User: Fold these one by one.
Assistant:
Number 1:
Amino acid sequence: MEKCYPIFPNFGLIIRLALHVFCNNNPVNFTDHAGLCTEEGRMLMPYYEALKSYPNNSILNDSRWQQFKRFINYKSYQLGEMLRFISSLGLGDNPNFSMEAYSANIKDELTAPRGGTPPLPGGGLFKTRIGGLSGKAAATDIPSWAEGLFPKVGESGKEFAHRLMRSKFGTGQYPTGPGSEFNKLKKYADRAFE
Amino acid sequence: MKSNSVYVLQHTRILPNGVDDVKFLGVYSSDVMASTAIERFKTRIGFSQFPDGFHVDRYDIDNDYWVDGFAGGPSEADGSPSK
């Protein structure tokens, strides 16, 4: 039987433990004063987006959890952005959450040895950002609320933009012309990802 | 009663270097007026070569259509060094 983990109640804890593990055990006020957390961390965001698609109090299957775990074991990330993102999801700690009940399990997962073979970016769920592109070439001037979100494998820029815009504004309730948020997202997804 | 919406007509073409060339053509009171304008523009030099580049969006006035900040600061946008 596939092992499952309750994930949403643990979001806050996962983040905090991850910060300790990957930021030299010193996540100073949840900001990256030491510069230990790199831009690569933005690649963690798609996982949060994927997790977000699960209803509250649902479970994360073992396969998805393994992808998540492998990824955070390999990458560090920008703390401020992650926390802002998580905060924007409204997934604050569950007041009924018992740290003791989960900490051993999660801590073991998070403190597993790092290194080795990098995981597939996005665990195969999301496209890979093309390295070395200028901001202009990669069309990175996207809305800040969409920063860190990646297009899925097989998803066109148009589909990516619609997915995000629908999620934020509701179906069809947004302009799509030049200069619009939609258009910026579309270009970003088309140009910045393989 | 006066409408609270306008219809913005723009034209886009992709230049050989990959850059978007966007022209802001007009603001109209209805989609019919915007469509009429498109037919007018289509007969003109340049536009006639790119008849698929027209785009109309409806905007409600007194609304923000960029709801937050934007990512990709100056260093990313123009290649200048970060400060």
Number 2:
Amino acid sequence: MAPDFPAAHSMDSCWFAVDRDGFVAYFSTGEAGAMPESGYGGEEASGLEDLLIRDLPVGDVLHDPNGHRLPDQHVGQLGLHPTDDWQTIVFLNSLAAVQSDIEAGRATAVRATEGYAVIFPRLTAEQVRRLTDSGAVRASDFYFDSGEGGAGSIARHGIYEYSHLCENWIAGPYGRSLVPARPVHVDQLPPNIRRNLMGTRFTGWTFAETVHIQPAEHWPCQAWDASWLGLDGKRHPFPGREDEFVEQDEED
Amino acid sequence: MLTLAGHAAAVRCVAYSPDGALLASGGDDGVVRVWDLASRLAVWASEKEGDPGIEALAFSADSTFILGGWSNGMYFGVAMDRWKQGWLHAAHNAAVRAILPHPDGVRIFTAGWDRDIWVWRLNKPKRIQLCKLPKPTASAALSPDGRTLALGLWNSGIVCLIDTDSGKVGKSRLVGESEVFSLAFTSDGSLLAAGDTRGRINLWNPAQPNQPPRALDGHSLPVYGLAFTPDGRRLVSAGADKTARVWDVATGRTLHEFLWHQSWVTCLAMAPDGLTVATGGEDKVVSVWDVPE
């Protein structure tokens, strides 16, 4: 593990893991997400990310609406707000409500694992009202095209992409934001990379079938916060940081 | 089916001795294991030397050496009369991908992830560069007459055919969008099989590269091992979907599908008599099984 985490906690970090069947995923900590103490993480993982984006062929990606919410959140709980500053991805049951936006170039349809997905460069109050009234919205989230399926996304190169879901208040679960149309198998990678990646292996399940992951449930992890949020919605202290956990509880 | 256990990590390569009596396997544990298939007993296991894994194995044509390649690019030979390492050479700047002894019994080809193809003489430290490829080698096979080296290039659907005397590239073909991770010639060299990362196997006559290949579809994930029976009537394949398949070459039909491994199959070798196949798995075991008629 490179020593840049959690010390350099003002920056996002990342790590990689392999699933039961040998497929590879990339996890973006978004600062607060837990990162396994062993395996491909930190600066080493950033270097690998650059290498894989450089070397692996480009393919299509599917956006996963369920990976943008916590396990116990209903998709409808995610807010849809007018914005000029951020792009927004909106997951829908039907494209009817956004057809006019797509035809006018105000939105771009992208592939989704379920239903439909559309990216809005900006959202007006009128668009938000229309989308909300349509009842077709399943979920929405900010969208950054440097990752998340855009030109810089590692998912376009066959790697499943998970993002941390809990802002910075706790080391929360990761959600599968992007599914590669053609996943890369770990044995397709050079042996030195393959061997390092296999150091962080989920032996029980596959990324193809798993939307939410909390690494602290599987391995010793490092994180900025003293506690982590399980997939069951319960808070847990990181081993050795129980005192901080109690203090946080008292402050809350 | 015979299960050979002993590796402490994924098996990466398997090879039969020319007489079919011995089977060698190597893995991520960095150990070479040799079994006597008649007695089912382990004959020899190498000492683990540092961190690198064994990526490629072959027997020399005269059965005097086991040839191996490490993930750190080193190439070694084990003298079978003494079971001692005969040599250790720095061969590649990245992992060794394949070791292919020429049927002349003299030359040995090594291919690596560094894009180099080297020619060696048995038990000699000197090497000659046969060629440098535009991309690393994902798969390799030598034609039975030793004249042609088929190489699947990483991150491309290209299979290069290299003249083993001149090193010149000729009659290469783009098989598809997916990279080829396994290659095999029939014993008469009239067919070349290429298994790709989408699970498709393409068959074509390497002398007629403009003819469209014949596709065998069945595997759902990358194909990591291929071998023809000596009569060319059957093709055996295995890969990341954990299955091994026996194909009827004439019809392209799957005759049998086996699930011998608990994890993905990394490698495959066919006995010289074509009666058995050995598959190595990420599950750390080698399975030796009969090829059904």
